[in-house]
Amino acid sequence: MRKIILSVLGVLLIIASIFLAKFLIASKDKPKPVQEKVVKTVFVDTVKNGGVQVKIPANGSLVAKRRVEIYSEVQGIFKSGSILFKPGQKYSAGQSLIRIDASEHYANVQSSKSNLYNSIAAIMPDLRLDFPEVYQKWQNYLNAFDLNKTALKLPEMSSEKENYFITGRGIVSNYYNLKNLEQRLSKYIITAPFSGILTEALVTEGTLIRNGQKLGEFIDPSEYEMEVNVSKSYANLLKVGETVELSNLNKTESYQGIISRVNGSVDQTTQTITAYIDVKNPDLKEGIYLEANIDGDTVQDAIEVDRNLLLDDQQVFVIKDGLLDTMPVTPVYFSETKVVLQGLPNGTILLKKPVPGAYAGMLVKSFEAEANL
Asked: Rounded to an integer, what distance in angstroms lies between the CA atom of residue 207 and that of residue 77?
């Protein structure tokens, strides 16, 4: 029985070997599958060299070109007026901003005026006898003297004797003491130096104002200036009177500015030079942050492309006969997102957008070519 089982197994093994041999022979003759070549579709552009205007970016905040910090030179109570001293309040040129109670000082001024008048009146009899030729002009001065008005200028001295006589009676010193008091009296009323708006108010009506105290800030909202810092390498491009493009951060609004001043020294820490740009627009406010594009030199025989198209070894990808290749270029100017290049011949097919994993020799086809198929 055992011999019969072994014989059957042997026959089956021989038959299986024959079938396996036939299968291997048949599979050996089948052709190997051909791997399909992958061709990437890319966006391209044709090089057309020309003049490229270099734009120097800068930014800064607007500040009113005419602004005044209001300080008090006298002491007293802030008197209320017809217009409240509040931020946002508009004033015309010459209009009173602040009135300080000056009743005590006014009394001193009037007392000094009276003393001057009395001292001149006291010498009139002597002038009639000793200096009859000058008597009339001093009499005219007394006749025009008004205690309710600013003191008039003393008559001109016509001789050395007259000068000694008038000065010796203390009239000249009394006059200048009076003018000093009158000058100080004018400081009790602070007027607007120009038409503008109050942006800061640190006191209110009834406040005791002290000498040297800051009272507020006043600006002219019709014209602003922006301070920008530009690399010293572009200092020769900053020209007074040149127009500058300004825009807000969202690029939704644009304005026209003019370079009004350029600092003559370079900041040693940042190696930048400061320029000031004037801008007028009713929509602008102090403190608004703007970006500026200052016109630089025009680079000839160049093109402007995205910075991410420039390789680390100062080469760019070009397309030749459906394959990617590299070509050396000369970068002339870098901005935040763009680079100006020279050295590419006209008509060169250049990548318009970077291709992930790109390498020299990669099969590609342009987007336009695929669209025409």
From this structure: 6
Q: Which residue has the tokens 């089948």?
A: 30
Ramachandran bin of 87, using left for φ above 0, alpha for ψ from -120 to 50, beta for the remaining angles = beta
Over residues 24-51, mean pLDDT: 70
CB atoms within 10 A of CB 43: 12
pLDDT of residue 193: 93
Spatial separation of the C-alpha atoms in residues 75 and 105, rounded to whole Å: 10
Q: What is the pLDDT of residue 276?
A: 93
Tell me: pLDDT of 57 over 90: no
> Comparing C-alpha atoms, which of 218, 205, 224 is closest to residue 71?
218
pTM of the model: 0.67
Query: And the tokens for 68?
Result: 């005044």
pLDDT, tens digit (0-9, with 9 covering 90-100), for 319-354: 888 888 888 998 888 777 888 888 888 988 888 888
> For residues 102 and 189, what is the distance between their CA atoms, to the nearest angstrom?
9
DSSP-assigned letter for residue 336 = S
Structure tokens at 60: 């800064």
Q: Is the separation of the CB atoms in 242 and 250 below 8 Å? A: no
Phi and psi at residue 228, in whole multiples of 5°?
-125, 150
| Residues 226, 63 contacting (CB under 8 angstroms) | yes
